[in-house]
Amino acid sequence: MAEEEVKLFGTWGSPFSRRIEVALKLKGVQYEYIEEDLTNKSPALLNYNPVNKQIPVLVHNGKPVAESFVIMEYIDETWKHNPILPADPYERAMARFWAKYIDEKFWPAAKKTVVAKGEEQKGAIDEIQQQMKNLEGELKEKKFFGGESLGFLDIAANIIIWLVVAQEALGMDQILNEEKLPVLHGWLHRLLDDAVFKECVPPKERHLDFFKVKFGSSIASK
Amino acid sequence: MAGNGDGVTLLGYWASPYALRVIWALKLKEVHYEYREEHLPDKSPMLLQYNPVHKKIPVLVHKGKPLAESLVIIEYIDEVWKHNPLLPQDPYHRAKARFWAKFADEKCVPAMFRAFSKVGEEQVQAAKELRENLKTLESALEGKQYFGGETIGFLDIAVGWIGCWARMNEEVAGVNMIDAEMIPLLSVWFQKFLELPIIKECLPPQDKLLAHTKEFHKMLMMAALT
Predict the structure, then answer these.
(1) Tens digits of residue pLDDT in A81-111
(2) Given an 8 Å threshold on Cβ–Cβ distance, is A65 in contact with B68?
(3) Which of A208, B17, B74, B141 could be a cystine partner for B161, CB 3.0 to 4.6 Å?
(4) Is the pTM of this model over 0.80?
(5) Helix crossing, B109-117 with B161-173: angle to 10°?
(6) Whole-number Cα distances in Å, B147 to A65, B60, B73, B119
(7) A93 closest CB neighbour out of B75, B92, B98
């Protein structure tokens, strides 16, 4: 059998490339990680993802795959042990539905809670709270969205950590607090405790500094 | 092949391309289903119950369990009814199909909507963006008859509707969206795809769709003026 060559193009601070790192590590796949400077994208990245010119890109034996959920499904189908998606088609569909929800609804609203001001910010905070309540409805009593162990939706929901860190960096009240969102709050702590997952979050101090630098001035001007 | 006992219901809307692509998937799999028309903008209690998060069609209900988001539904259909596979077998080709479906939904469709609903410079830019994105989408054909190869598959049904809607939209909004010189291969593919009997028979009545499109456009233009 030919030797596998797996490369991942990502950035240290991107939740999207961190998702791929979790997936690869859960599967025990050896890979070469290439850190991209998005202000100066490498010729390799532009060659492997000419359409969107974005990270993450997974390159498997020379063949590139882009878009984080597309990559995660590819990983799950290529390395079949330790499945990330459930076996049951309905449960798979629910994982995909909520993952889509996270990227298309939660992520834009989360960004707004940090950069918007006044009424717009308040509206975004209310919206996010409702969205997280909806996610709690999907999690219910389970340890993780994936059940006893991490799955597709847990990995997709890593973006919640970015919101938590941003709010901490900017001295904002945590929207994800134990009182209002006990179920999700518990899940987050289990996630951050997971041996594989915790290797795949940005280093805390560097991450906090990043948000302070990026958004700090917008808070100061309020 | 699939019998009534499977209990499949589709909540849809006659003018929705998202419901249409689910219908195409069901037809290709020969799944027997009950269709329920939603009289939008009014939403039935059933729709609100089955899709409380988005309150949108299409919603597929199978054995009492609801699913929303058309591409999620289509993948579900492909996994439950395994004959006439929609997605290719090979993981790399599956990834490409999913990538391009996402590209079409996220880059082509919003540009088309902006080209339809805006005026002036904004409209010109949106139409240009749409034409360029369709050119990019064309590269995914890779010289094949259909995106699925010799026969249609997931990506064909995911994006084929754009050929119908774009032609109607460009006529009503007065801006070029399908430039046959710029996208010769995609233009041919749109035509071939939409002429396939199984595809064509599910299209909304074209005169009704045109009238609906004109009315929608009028509404958008009036809203833009206020």
Answers:
(1) 999 999 999 999 999 999 999 999 999 999 9
(2) no
(3) B17
(4) yes
(5) 20
(6) 17, 25, 19, 33
(7) B75
